[in-house]
Specification:
There is one protein chain. It is built from 13 helices and no strands. The longest helix is centred in the N-terminal third of the chain and has 34 residues. Helix 2 packs antiparallel against helix 10 and helix 8 packs across helix 12. It has 321 residues and is mostly helical. The chain has a single domain, classed as ABC transporter involved in vitamin B12 uptake, BtuC. Helix content is 75%, strand content 0%. It is a multi-pass membrane protein. It is found in: Cell membrane. Keywords: Cell membrane, Membrane, Transmembrane, Transmembrane helix, Transport. InterPro entries: ABC_BtuC-like, ABC_transptr_permease_BtuC.
């Protein structure tokens, strides 16, 4: 069996291959160049933004899922199931409707970050007395339902039906039709969020050994929780504000990679970052290859992939009880 460093190198190679394939692959699975585009123009203006946004979204969701599962000791914890994605989408929709048009490019990602932070804070408040699997998941489901209801209300009150329809398509999740300036805008926030989450690795390992052991190691639960909230808010909020709601990446990736690191929560973080980026790049590549008239939305594909995994985890948890 490969060591942890060798596994990371392999994941990095897989990401690089999928990244390059995404840059050269056109919709429909062809490698043709449309009329009126030269190669450099096509790559820089069309394919690079989509590929880059797909990777950083998958990496952010995979990493945040691993951190949330490690902190809660819950294999079902994931930003989508816990309502963080829904609150990020709600914040982005509110910013889209009520933010200043002149600053829309950075206002919408900021709204997503604030929405994700609000969702995380509410989740921590609801689950502060009960960190059991049932209490934690139910709190997330309740928050997700509330955010979805408020998003629907915002769409219902939209003065322009065409704008509401555009937001509905955006909520399905997609990395297409984004320019490079838009993608570069969120990279600092995503990089800071990933840095904060990756630094939680040693604390998550101590936390996995129990509160008493964590206390002897000088681990502060409040400081760890704050770092996770900030990191997930920056990562998930920024990316979801750009792509719309993309769920289950943070559930599937840690679940698949955890056995490789012998269930060490600290070793899982970088694996999940690379694995999440690879999974979403693969899903976006499959979208382009499928011979369909209308291109599937990325959020639809991840939901189709993640739902069976969720049922498997629920079945396995029931067998263990």
């Amino acid at each position: 069996m490969l060591g942890i460093n060798e596994q990371r190198y392999l994941l990095l190679i897989i990401v690089a291959v999928l990244f390059c394939l995404s840059l050269i692959l056109a919709p429909g699975g062809s490698f043709s160049i449309p009329d009126g585009f030269d190669t450099s123009q096509l790559i820089l203006e069309v394919r690079l933004p989509r590929t880059l946004l797909t990777f950083i979204t998958g990496a952010s969701l995979g990493l945040s899922g691993a951190v949330l599962q490690g902190y809660s000791h819950n294999p079902l914890a994931e930003s989508g199931l816990l309502g963080i994605n829904s609150w990020a989408a709600l914040g982005a929709v509110i910013a889209f409707y009520f933010g200043p048009l002149a600053a829309l490019a950075w206002w919408v990602p900021l709204g997503g970050i604030i929405g994700a932070a609000v969702g995380l804070a509410a989740l921590g408040w609801l689950a502060r007395h009960s960190m059991s699997m049932t209490g934690f998941i139910l709190a997330g489901v309740a928050l997700s339902a509330l955010a979805s209801a408020l998003t629907t209300l915002a769409l219902n009150l939209a003065p322009n039906p065409f704008a509401a329809l555009e937001v509905i398509f955006w909520l399905m999740g997609s990395a297409s039709d984004k320019g490079l300036p838009q993608v570069l805008l969120i990279i600092p926030a995503v990089a800071l969020g990933c840095w904060l989450l990756l630094r939680t690795g040693p604390s998550l390992y101590g936390w996995s050994l129990g509160p008493d052991v964590a206390a002897t190691m000088g681990i502060s639960p409040q400081r760890l929780r704050t770092r996770i909230m900030l990191g997930c808010g920056l990562c998930v909020g920024s990316t979801i504000a750009m792509t719309g709601s993309i769920a289950f990446v943070g559930l599937v990736v840690p679940h698949l990679l955890r056995p490789l690191v012998r269930h060490r929560p600290d070793k899982l973080l970088l694996h999940s970052l690379l694995g999440g980026g690879a999974l979403l790049l693969l899903a976006d590549t499959l979208i382009r290859i499928l011979p369909m008239g209308n291109e599937l939305k990325l959020g639809v594909v991840t939901a189709l992939i993640g739902t069976p995994v969720l049922f498997h985890l629920l079945y396995r948890q029931r067998q263990e009880e």
